[in-house]
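request received
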Amino acid sequence: MDCSDSASVKAKSEAKLGVPRKPRVLLAACGCVAAVKFGLLCHCFIEWADIRAVVTQSSLRFIDRASIPNGVFVYYDEYEWYSWKRMDIELLEWADIMVIAPLSAHTLAKIAGGYCDNLLTGTVRGWDPRKKPIFVAPSMNPFMWKNPSTEKHCKKCIDELGISLIPPISQRSGEGEYSTGAMAEPSDISRNVMISYSKFQKKNVGGV
Amino acid sequence: MLHVELRNWADIMVIAPLSTNTLGKIALGLCDNLLTSIVRAWDYRKPLFVAPSMSTCIWEDFFTERHLNAIDELGIILIRPVSITTASGEREHAMAEPSTICSDGVASLALVHLYLDVNVDAMLFLINTHCTVTSLGTNGKPVSAIFLN
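response:
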C-alpha cells in the first residue's frame, strides 16, 4: 500500500469517528531559485495542516529533499499515472487548499494559458477555486515582474480563474537598489493562507 | 543570470528566423529557454525585431494571427516574411532577406525616435556571417545587439 492509500484510509476512519481533521494543503513548487525555501515552507504549513507536495522537474535543481519534513509525500511528474490512477485527480480530491510557492514566470504563463503538461499544471487545470481556494506566490527577477506579460497573466489568474495572489516582496539587490520580484517569506505565506482559509470556510458555512 | 545580463547589455534584439513555436511562446509569455527568457524580461523601450519563417498554411492560420496581435501589443516589431514557392512546389513564408531585416531595423529605429549611431554595413556583415552576439558602434558611441538564430 502506498503512502496516499494509507493516508486516505486514515482519513476515512477519522471521518467515521467524527474527529475534526486538519486542513489538507497541497504545496507546489516551480523551478526558480526561491524553491530553495520550499523545505522551510513545508515546515511552516505542517504546524497547522496536513500537507502533500507537488514539484516540477526543474524545481528539483533547487529543492533539498532532506529539508522537507518526514512524512510529507512528494509527488514528481513520474507520478502522473501512479499505480494506474490519475494522480492529478487524486490530489484534487484530497486537497482542501492548493498553494504554489514559488510560482515561476513560465508556470504563471502556463496557468493563464490553460496549459497542463505536467502534474502541477494538470492539477491546477482541474481545480475549482469557487469550491477550494488556490494561492500563488510568484517569484521572478524584477524585469520579468515589471514586464507587461506578467500583468496580463496575473489579471487573467485573479479575475477570471479566481486564484489568490500573494504578491512578491521588495528586496535589496547587489547594487543597493530595491526591486520587487522575490517570493514572500514562507512564514508570511503560511499565515496569509491560514487566515484566508478560515475566512473562506466561514463564508461558505454562512452561505449554506 | 545570463538572460538578465544579456537583456541589460543589449540595445536592440533581433530574432531571425522566428519559428511558429517560439512565436507562440513569446505571445503567451512562456520562458523555458534562454531566448524566451530574454524576451520575457525585455525592456520594451528598446526595440525588439522578429523575422518569422514558416509554411504558408501555418502563416495563414488563426493562431498565428492571434499570436501576431499579441506580440504587436507587447511592442515587438514584425519584419514580414516573403512568400516563395519551394522546388517541390510548396508555398512557404520564408524569412525576409538579411539586408531587408537590417534596413527595416534601421528604419524602425528612426520611427520609434530612438537615436542610435549604427554602422549599417557592420550590422549587415554580422547578420550574414551568423554572428550570435556582437557589439556594434561608430564614433565612439557603442551600440549592442543580440542576433539569435
